[in-house]
Specification:
The chain is mainly α. It is 66% helix and 3% strand. It has helices at 16-37, 45-76, 81-95, 98-107, 114-120, 122-126, 128-137, 144-156, 158-171, 183-188, 195-209, 213-234, 239-246, 251-263, 265-278, 304-318, 320-331, 368-387, 399-402, 404-419, 423-458, 465-480, 493-496, 510-529, 534-543, 549-554, 563-583, and strands at 174-176, 179-181, 335-336, 348-352, 357-361. It is globular, with a radius of gyration of 24 Å.
Length: 585
Amino acid sequence: MKTWNLDALYPGYESKEFKDAIENIKSLIEEADRFASTLQEDADPLPTIKQYIDLSARLRSSFLRAFGFVNLSLATDAQDETSNSWMNRMQQLSSQTTQFNTKFAKWLPTVENLDALIESDATLKEYEYYLKRIVDRSQYVLSDKEETVISKLTQTGSSAWSQLQGLLTSILEVEYKDEKVTLPDIRNKAHSRDPEVRKEAFYSEIAAYKKIEQSVAFSLNSIKGEVNEIVRMRGFESALDEAVYDSRMKRETLDALIETMREHLPMFRKYLKRKAEVLGHKSGKLPWYDLFAPLGKSESEFSIDEAMKYVIKNFRSFGDDLADLAERAYDEEWIDFTPRSGKRGGAFCFNLHPIKQSRILTNFEGSFSNVITLAHELGHAYHGDRIFNESILNASYTMPVAETASTLCETIVKKAALGDSEGDEQLFILEQSLMGTTQVIVDILSRFIFEKSVFEEREATPLSVDRLKTMMVDAQKAAYGDAIQEDTFHPYMWINKPHYYRGSLSFYNFPYAFGLLFAKGIYAIYQEKGSDFVEDIDNLLQKTGKMDVEEVADLINIDVTQKAFWEGSMKVIKEEIDLFLKLTD
C-alpha cells in the first residue's frame, strides 16, 4: 500500500502550522470585511481594484491550502471525525467571504471607463479577463444578504448532502462470495477475465445499493432541488444554462458537441455488438456486466512501481517536462494508490497552487485500465504544473478544458502501448482504449441525458428511487441502444457517480467528452507537427485560466463551435473501431 504524504501542506491538525493558517484566514476575512464596508460608489477605482486583487489572491491561497489538507484527509478516511468537523468549519469560513466578493462584484460594473483603466495599468492588465468576468457575472449576483444566506444554507444543504453520498458509498459493504468488500473493490472486478466473477460482482453491486438507495436518492433530490431554486433566483433559465456559462463556453459549442456524439452512436454500438459476439453472447447484445470484459491477452499485471515506470517511459516520448513531472509526483509521494475501507472510490487530482504541487487519488489494483487512469490523473497534475506559472487568480480553469491534458496523457500511453504490441496483446490494448472511449462518449451522453431529465422533473416533484432507476435505464437505452442486453442495464448508476452530487457544479459530464475529443484533435496535430507543437500545447494549458473555451481553442486554430472539428476527432476513434472489427473478424 502506498499513500500520499500531506506534510507539504501541514503536518497535522494539531500542528502549529495548521493552527497559524486558520488564524491567518480569519485575519484575512476580517481585513476583507473592512474593505467591503468602506467600498463606496465614489471610491478611487485604481487603488481599490488593486487592493481587491491583492486581498483576493492572499485569501484564495491561504484558504486553498487549508481546505486542500482537510479535503484530502477526508478523501482517504470518510469517517474521520476530526476531518469532518474541519470540513464544516472550512465551509463556514468560506461563507464569511461572500459579502466581500458580492459587494465588489456589485461595485466594479459602476466604474466608468473600466476598459481604459485596465489598459493604463500593468497590474490590471494582467487580470483583465478576471476583472471582466466579474463584471459579466454581476448580472447573476444577488444582493449581499441573499448571497450570504445562500452561502450559509448550502453548508447544511447541498454540501452536507454531498458529504452523505460520499460517506455512504465509501463505507458501503458489498457481500460477495461470503465476504464483505468495498464498492471500489467490487467495481474493479468488472475487469476480471473470469465471466462468472464479472457477472456475480455486478449483481452483488446492484444488491448492495438497496442498503443506501433511499438515503442517496434523498441526497440527489435535495441537491438538485436546491440548485433549481438558486439558478432561477439568479436569472438563468436552467441549471444547464448556468453550467455552460460557468464553463466559460458558448451554448453553440455544447450543441455541436452533443449533436456530433449522438450522430456517431451507431459506430460505438457496432463495436459493442462485435464485442458481444467475441464473448459468445448468442443474442448479439452485450450484457452490462461485460462492458469492461478484457479481450485479447496480456501478461501485464502491473505493480505500482511497474505502472509508474511504464507511464514515465511513454510520457518521455512526448516530452521531458511531462515525464519529469510524473517522476516528481512519485518520488515526492503525491499519489495515494490503493483502495481501502473509508477511502472514496474512483480517482481524482487536486492541484495545490499555493505549494505548486498536486495530489492524486486512485484505486490501483494492477490492471492496464488502472495504468491508464494513473496516466489520466498525472495529466491533470501536468496541467496544474503549467497553470502554476500564472498567478492564483488566473489559474482557475473550467471543466471542459480541465480534461484536455488528462485525456492527452491517456492517448500518449495508449498509442505507445499499441505501437509496441501485436496479436492478442494489440487486441487487448486496443479494446482497453475503446472501452474508455465508449465510456467517455456513450456513457457520458447517458449521464448528460439523465441529469437533464432529473433537473427538469425535479422542478415539479421529488423523484422516488423507482423513478430515478427508470430514468437512469431510459438514459442508458437512449445512448447504448440495442447494443446492450435489455435486462442488464444498470439502474443504480446514479448512486456511485459523485459528479451528480455537487451543488456548485452541475453537469460534470459533458466536459469529459469535450476533453477527449479536444485532446484527440490536439494529438492529431501533434502527430503532424512533432515536438515543436509541445510548446503550443503548454501555452494552451497555461492560458486556460484566463480565456473562454473558444479562445483557448483558437490559440491552435481550432473552431469548437463547428461540428467539423468534432467530426474530425470522431474519425480518429472510427479508425480504432475499424481496426477492432478487422482484428476480430
